[in-house]
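Listing S7. Sequence submitted for prediction.
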Amino acid sequence: MENVNKNRLFIASCVALLVTAMTFAIRARLETVFGPEGIGLTLEQIGWAFTPAFFGFTIAMIFGGILVDTMGIKKITWLAFITHAIGITWTLLARDQTSLFLATLFVGIGNGMVEAALNPMIASMYTENKTKMLNRFHIWFPGGIVIGSIVGWLIMDVMGMSWQIMVGVLYIPLIAYAFMFMGQEFPVTERVKLGVSNKKMFSSVVKPLFIFMVICMFLTAATELGTNQRIESLLKATVAVPLLVLAFINGIMAAGRAFAGQVVHKLKPEGMLLFSAIFAFLGLWLLTVTTGPMTFFAAAVFAIGITFFWPTMLSFVAEYIPESGALGLSIMGGAGMFSVSLILPIMGNIIDNASANDALKIMSVLPAILIVLFIGLNLYMKKRKPKTQEA
């Protein structure tokens, strides 16, 4: 990797993930634009219109994960840019459930291609610090949600401007990451570098430990992203500006991921995951019993819980099942986003027909299950030596 500018590629990757995250926050704000008080869709219909953001992500990650070793990281990255551009433009033209669905599909594919290409790129560039650097990379998911939330609040709520201007802001980081990637040499994936065969790669993703982690990813992603994506509906009865709670949660997450290197040395990935599940459960439970300013305290507990979920799930696989390569990371990310595509309409139906509080109570069951699963994982890992060691 002599001619690879690691620093520039890493920063460009962070900006690409920033676009992904901002679409998440801005989509949360669009719920009120297209909802019962706006265009007139029910919350369940909006849930269905938003699902392509997650199953599109899943499709892109799975196929991207398979193709990134053969096509190369560079081509998958440019596919991310193209589909991002189409999705953002189509969102500006959306006027009903169908057009919103299709726009969201392209955005989801772009988001999935970003993760399919850049997670393995970072794992390949920083083989001795995977958990640390993947957490630093994923700072920009909560960081981007903070930025997107504040942009949405300022443009629509403070300045009273149109939602199209809010969506149009996405072109700024989109063009920025394209410029930064332009003309750069990309590294090969770690699997290619290690010479791991296709047979060994595919056999690794059917191992019991990998399948167990995929099951856990369904629950961790639904806990984190399902709750955050529907924050407007879940908290509109308890706080004045739910989008600011979303920004608050993700600000804590960004700060926490910045210090992931120190945390992982003390807890190891499996310990971080158990810690996260406990706090996520407590946070969701507290959100069911708090209102007003105390909602921010509950949100802080929840944020501490979900801070390390996504990147540590990925880094666990990269560290302990490295032969799964880009495919393993993509299956993990794809499984997580697919679970969110399933939970969103379910949450919308519960909120439509019962209450937001009931939805929060049901969501709190997911991290409760994870506590049990991660206790088991920690006991198992004590008997198993890691294949690589974090620096």
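Caption to Listing S7: primary sequence and predicted structure tokens for the chain studied. The two ends are 20 Å apart (CA to CA). The chain is about 80% helix and 0% strand.
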